[in-house]
Prior knowledge:
Layout: H1 3-36, H2 41-57, H3 60-74, H4 78-81, H5 86-122, H6 130-163, H7 166-169, H8 183-211, H9 219-260, H10 275-444, H11 449-595
Helix pairs in contact: 1-2, 1-3, 1-6, 1-9, 2-5, 3-5, 5-6, 6-8, 6-9, 8-9, 9-10, 10-11
Amino acid sequence: MDEAKVKAICWRLTIGLELLTAVLAVPTAVLFIIIGGMYSFDKSLLVVLGATIALFTSYIVPTVRFLRLKTLLRKTIPDFFQHLNLNEKQKIKLQLLEFPKMNSWYFLVQWSFGIPLAAFVTFQFFSPTLVEYLPYAILPILIYPVLGVSHFFLTELLVSEVLVMKELKDLPLEAHTIPKVGIYARIFFTMSAVFSMTLTALGYLLVAEVTKFIQLQNAELTLLLMAAFITVNIFVLTSLFVKAMKFNTIQMATRYKELASGDLRESVPIISTDELGHGSISLNSFILNIRKITSVVIEGSDKVNADAKIIATQTQGLTQAMMEQASSSEEMSAGVEEMTASIRSTAFGAKKQNDITIEAKDLVLKMESSIVSIHDLMSLTENETKQMEEETKLGQKALLSTLAAMSEIESSVDHTSNVIQVIGEISDKIGLLSLNASIEAARAGDAGRGFAVVASEISKLGEQTLTNTKRILEAVSKASTSTKSGRLAVSNTEKTFQQIGNSVLTTIELIKQSTEMTKKQLELIKNVKESFEKLTISAMEIEQNTNEQASTSEELAKSIASITEGTEYLNQFVSDIDKLCAALSGKASNLRQTIDFFKI
């Protein structure tokens, strides 16, 4: 879509809607007002003048709608549309789908302004009676339903021309985001508009005629003209409804026809908000899934076909190579059998030499094992005695520290005993003080009773302190005695540790001498062992080499036999693969021919 097409659609919609208004609604409204208000010829001209002025004045609303639609359609121009992200594109499509419903507000504003303005202009020339004023009040019931439905369908038809564009048609939408105006609602409002106009116009005139509220001149012709105008309105309204339904139905039917012929290239445009429009989403999802499955099947069948041909080509060369290999393996098998017999004879002599060498080596290893055990025991004993020496020294240090601590404890106990004696003397003095206080309180008489109680309590406190002091002295005396006994025992233990340390030093010296002797024996036996090891290794290598040669030749013979059998089996297998590849290629070609029914 380009700028010229945008303007064309905007003008077509604006002119189309105004033609609907000017051709259908305005004549019917003017005729209804003139007949229903019993206007004279002069007043009828004024009614037409007022309606014309109101109609042209209200064109400001279509202008706003024109600009709004133009702004929205410009966003669909490819140069602008392709730079938008998916959410912005979906928003534009939703706004286009909502525009027919939103257009109802434009006509409501236009006529809600136009009808009062037409009445105002008309009544500037004369003062209306109730009969002349009443049709203007009833006019919205007559006009609004028909205009609303016809504007909705015409707007939907013109907007659908934008929605069928490639860019918008293939743009996916979620069903819950699309506003829904169902087929039931469309039929209901269409029928309501038809009956509303018919019942309002003809009913008003018939009731007025019957009740003599107004006097119709030539009632038959009047009713006939009104019926003709109503018929034209009904015809245009139903035509728009059928055309809108038919356009959407044709789109769906065309797509189903293309699907039946296997054409998956196009999707169904969402051009309405009814059940058919919402059904288009499910149908497009189905087409997309079938398109994906078809693409995968076509790609897979082509690949299978190509791979089958490649395998068939390669297996032909493999068959020729297998036949040549089978002939060569038979010749190799005869030569290997002769070589195996010669190697077996050499291996028997090597085995005897190796057995003798192994016996001598075992004796040397036993001797070495005994000396190593003795050496290990001596080393272990030496380590243990060194550890004992260190522990003895640590024990001596600990005992010396204990002796020093015991001396400090003994000094502290003596000092504590002196302090407790001082406390005892203080307790004696407190007793004397409380006695003197009691005597003085007795002299004072009644005034000294309170002081006597205090003196008595002090005397009791002194006695308790003296008693506790004696107990503490006894405990301290026992602690002093125990401390002296402990210090004497620790001193004796320290002397014993000194004797143990001297014995350990002597033992360590003897163990060192024994360890040196075992080391010399180990060095001698090591040289002997190395010589035997070299001899054993040499004998084992000879035996192993001959055994390996014999085993290798036997295995080689078996392998050649297996290769011969495998070659024959593989040759047969390759023939089966050739047949399988041919069958697979044929099935892949058939699958491709079948899936080519779908066009993606």
